[in-house]
């Protein structure tokens, strides 16, 4: 009698809603920095370019996390790494809240953002690995939708709630960040609801050489297939990066948006809408080609940015277009996650997911810098128009590459059919 027959429940996949809770802390620090801290820094007359640089740094560890991804696959357990990452993320939020919000604090906040970003990457990789092993192929889009809904909620709800507490309730940043840190740690209570996958190898210990070999093999398996190659291209291109969304609290005064409005729209409302967009994106991605769905979502975000630039700069416009932007961001993040999950399969899931996610976080980081630079030099409309133009160019590049790949795959498919 096999072990699986002795424990039939262990073969059942967890409901994908568990990934909503587990993944929420992944973006908690970036949400706190991007909404609450960014608004406070803007009120302290810190230049938008400096604030954008700080926010961009929070994504830097995710751009190179493939360097330590094999550690998650080969040492300890995924759940242990989750607890380590969750604790590090919570500590980053707490320390950020204790730091004075002024220009001189930017270097220290940058160091905290990098350290907490590394911790968040460990948390994210553990969840991605758990999900990759436990999710049936036909439900990859649904699981990605729930995970990215948690990602959106962690950033929007956490940051918006913090801003509301500080600005409307006049709660001190230290007490506010303490509450946010506690909420981050509470998410770990969902860990028992997901099954830890069996070890990939019976070999114990950790070898840098073996890890590098495994990472190279995993990357080659993905890159050598047409699906994997297009997935890599999708991740590398700045499609649906949502860079402007990181600066809403900075540019809000130009739309005459009050602090309470910014907190509501970029917090609770944005969290609900982007989470809904993530779930909708998962539904769509399971019913059409996931790469093209991702591109469709990116095109919608570019159109939203253009429309916001063209519309009157009023508080009502700020509410409408930032809400629509949050919807498209949820769609885009789910489209990206669905493409990656489809391409990586199982195996050393944390390593493979991280290799592709690292590519995806590169445009996310530098598009935030582009948004800050263009806002400082060309104004708020220039920021939105620049993002839309770059996104449109990226979509054109992908469409051309997909068309070429499809043409090359045609003769090979016909040969296979006649063999």
TrEMBL record:
Primary location class: membrane
Gene3D superfamilies: MFS general substrate transporter like domains
Membrane topology: Multi-pass membrane protein
SUPFAM superfamilies reported for this sequence: MFS general substrate transporter (SSF103473)
Subcellular location: Membrane
Lineage: superkingdom: Bacteria
Annotated keywords: Membrane, Transmembrane, Transmembrane helix, Transport
Name of the protein this chain belongs to: MFS transporter
């Amino acid at each position: 009698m096999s072990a699986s027959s002795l424990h039939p429940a262990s073969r059942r996949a967890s409901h994908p809603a568990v990934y909503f809770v587990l993944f929420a802390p992944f973006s908690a620090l970036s949400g706190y920095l991007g909404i609450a801290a960014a608004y406070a820094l803007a009120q302290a007359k810190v230049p938008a370019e400096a604030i954008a640089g700080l926010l961009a740094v929070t994504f830097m560890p995710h751009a190179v996390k493939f360097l330590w991804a094999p550690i998650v696959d080969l040492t300890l357990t995924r759940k242990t790494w989750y607890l380590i990452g969750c604790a590090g993320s919570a500590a980053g939020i707490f320390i950020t809240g204790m730091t004075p919000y002024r220009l001189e604090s930017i270097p220290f906040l940058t160091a905290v953002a990098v350290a907490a970003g590394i911790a968040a990457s460990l948390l994210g990789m553990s969840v991605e690995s758990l999900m990759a092993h436990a999710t049936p192929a036909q439900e990859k889009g649904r699981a990605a939708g729930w995970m990215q809904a948690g990602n959106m909620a962690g950033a929007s709800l956490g940051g918006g709630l913090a801003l509301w507490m500080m600005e409307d309730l006049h709660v001190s940043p230290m007490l506010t960040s303490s509450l946010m840190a506690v909420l981050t740690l509470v998410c770990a209570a969902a860990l028992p609801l997901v099954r830890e996958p069996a070890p990939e190898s019976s070999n114990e210990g950790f070898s840098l050489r073996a890890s590098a070999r495994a990472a190279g093999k995993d990357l080659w398996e993905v890159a050598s297939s047409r699906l994997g190659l297009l997935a890599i291209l999708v991740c590398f291109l700045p499609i649906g990066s949502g860079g402007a969304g990181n600066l809403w609290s900075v540019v809000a005064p130009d739309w005459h948006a009050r602090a309470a409005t910014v907190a509501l729209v970029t917090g609770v409302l944005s969290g609900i809408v982007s989470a809904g967009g993530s779930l909708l994106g998962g539904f769509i991605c399971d019913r059409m080609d996931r790469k093209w769905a991702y591109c469709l979502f990116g095109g919608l975000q570019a159109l939203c940015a253009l429309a916001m630039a063209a519309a009157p700069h009023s508080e009502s416009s700020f509410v409408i277009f930032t809400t629509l932007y949050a919807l498209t961001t949820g769609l885009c993040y789910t489209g990206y996650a669905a493409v990656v999950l489809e391409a990586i399969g199982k195996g050393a899931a944390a390593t493979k997911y991280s290799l592709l996610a690292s590519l995806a976080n590169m445009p996310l980081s530098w598009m935030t810098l582009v948004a800050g630079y263009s806002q400082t030099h060309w104004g708020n409309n220039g920021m939105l128009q620049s993002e839309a133009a770059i996104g449109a160019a990226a979509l054109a590049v992908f469409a051309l590459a997909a068309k070429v790949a499809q043409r090359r795959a045609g003769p090979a498919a016909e040969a296979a059919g006649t063999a």
